[in-house]
Amino acid sequence: MSGERVLSTLNMILLQVAGLGILLFWAMGAILLLTGNGGQINDINLHGFWQTVYYSYPFLLIFLSMIGWLAFFRKADLVGMAALAVPPGIMFLMYLVFIMSPKPF
User: Fold this and answer.
1) Which residue in 6, 13, 55, 103 is deepest, having the highest Cβ count within 10 Å?
2) Which pLDDT score is estimated for 103?
3) CA 33, CA 72: separation in Å to the nearest integer?
4) Is 105 part of a structural domain of the chain?
5) The pTM is what?
6) Is residue 52 situated within a structural domain?
7) Has residue 76 been placed in a domain?
8) Are 105 and 47 a contacting pair, CB within 8 Å?
9) pLDDT at residue 54 is higher than 80
10) Residue 38 has what pLDDT?
11) Which residues span the domain enclosing 17?
12) Is residue 53 in a domain?
């Protein structure tokens, strides 16, 4: 295993951990949204497109994780890392949209 492949492996693991870490907090927010016992997640008042994006995170994470790891094992390291970076990136951009926008969604 070359040095570049080792760094790619570590990067893939860190990206997967980031996605799963966000999934933990996503699950807490989803429970609060579904029960209506939340704080700020209920104040955002998600509807339509944004609610669909929020609830699709676990499916997106599973799908892109499979694509990322399959690409990694086929020695397409950059494609694998890009696929694993998409779910945390989407949630980060969604967070930025929510804090920058004054109107409810």
Assistant:
1) 55
2) 67
3) 35
4) no
5) 0.85
6) yes
7) yes
8) yes
9) yes
10) 77
11) 3-100
12) yes
